[in-house]
Amino acid sequence: MMSSKLHFVVLLIIISLILNIQSARVMDDLSDCEFKGPCQKRKDCYERCGVDKPPFKTALCEPYGSSRVCCCI
């Protein structure tokens, strides 16, 4: 009985480490953002990021502190 509890705890630790590494990788991907002013929704960022003009970019409206800002990728 004791060994099954130990296996369960070890499994939880391994899963938490994997999830922590995955979330760090997502944050690194978002570091490619070029922030360009406040927004309420994604469409607010299309003109600022030049979505329809070469070089074609993707626009996101990301939370930043207590507000939201345009993130041009």
From TrEMBL:
One of its GO terms (biological process) is defense response to fungus. Keywords: Antimicrobial, Disulfide bond, Fungicide, Plant defense, Signal. The keyword Lipid biosynthesis does not apply. Residues 1-23 form the signal peptide. It comes from the Eukaryota. InterPro entries: DEFL. The keyword Transmembrane helix does not apply. Belongs to the DEFL family. This is Uncharacterized protein. It comes from Brassica carinata.
